[in-house]
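Example S7 (structure tokens).
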């Protein structure tokens, strides 16, 4: 069977996801974690999306919200799922990273 069309696409996508998962498990690089947040939480000082800007917020505030989403104490549409996929170390490191970034 030739590896093109949908089969190649699915295989490629699975390989990509395996790579991302491996990356996330190897060492929670906060810059990599934070890049995943930036798609929805704008880094710009003039946000183009209505989602809360996280950069420059106190790290404790970001981490507290993430832990509350993960435990179910706080409700949300998407953050519960995202938080459930993150370890305590991931949450603390991405919170510190985002807090230290200044909006451009
Ligand atoms: C798919 C879009 C999306 C991604 C990706 C995303 N968020 Fe969110 N975030 C939201 C939305 C939407 C809300 C509002 C709550 C809800 O509906 O879940 C939110 C709310 C939050 C809040 C609470 C903000 C406040 O002041 O109330 C925090 C903290 C947060 N997100 C952190 C993160 C972090 C850290 C990441 C990356 C690891 C991330 N988010 C990735 C969409 C996203």
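Recovered sequence:
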């Amino acid at each position: 069977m030739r590896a093109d069309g949908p089969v190649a696409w699915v295989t490629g996508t699975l390989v990509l996801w395996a790579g991302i998962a491996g990356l996330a498990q190897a060492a929670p690089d906060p810059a990599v974690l934070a890049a995943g947040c930036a798609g929805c939480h704008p880094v710009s000082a003039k946000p183009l999306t209505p989602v809360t800007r996280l950069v420059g917020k106190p790290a404790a505030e970001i981490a507290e919200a993430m832990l509350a989403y993960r435990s179910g104490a706080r409700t949300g549409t998407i953050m519960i799922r995202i938080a459930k996929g993150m370890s305590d170390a991931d949450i603390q490191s991405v919170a510190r990273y985002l807090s230290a970034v200044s909006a451009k």
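Notes on this example. The radius of gyration is 16 Å.
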